[in-house]
Amino acid sequence: MNALLGSLLVLATFVTVCNAQCFVIPHENIPGNLPNECKDLDGVTHPMNSKWKTKSCQECSCDQHGISCCNAVAIPADYDTTKCEKIFNEKTCSYKVVERNDPEKTCPVSGWIM
């Protein structure tokens, strides 16, 4: 019983640490029709073998399998969450971590998630 509980604790830790930041949108399969472009979730078409960055800071590409997108933003994960807060800048697609009481002062971050 202790071994099972220990295994579950380790698994829960890995699930918490693992942060899936990519996804795939497959092509619609039409028999005999090879795609020459990809259509994203907003209905925008992209040429085959092209790459682009979305408004939500994801890097995407179009290939024979469909659209692949991954998060392009490093997220601060190891900092003093009581004293500090993370702030996202949409223009630069980046976070900064600052003191809650004095946002002019940055806080040290010792771990980031991609």
TrEMBL record:
Q: Which domain of life is it from?
A: Eukaryota
**Entry GO CC:** extracellular region
- Work out whether the entry's keyword set contains Secreted: yes
> Which UniProt keywords are listed?
Disulfide bond, Secreted, Signal
- Compartments (UniProt record): Secreted
Q: Which residues form the signal peptide?
A: 1-20
Query: Which family is it part of?
Result: Belongs to the beta-microseminoprotein family.
Write the protein's name.
Answer: Beta-microseminoprotein
Q: Which gene encodes it?
A: MSMB
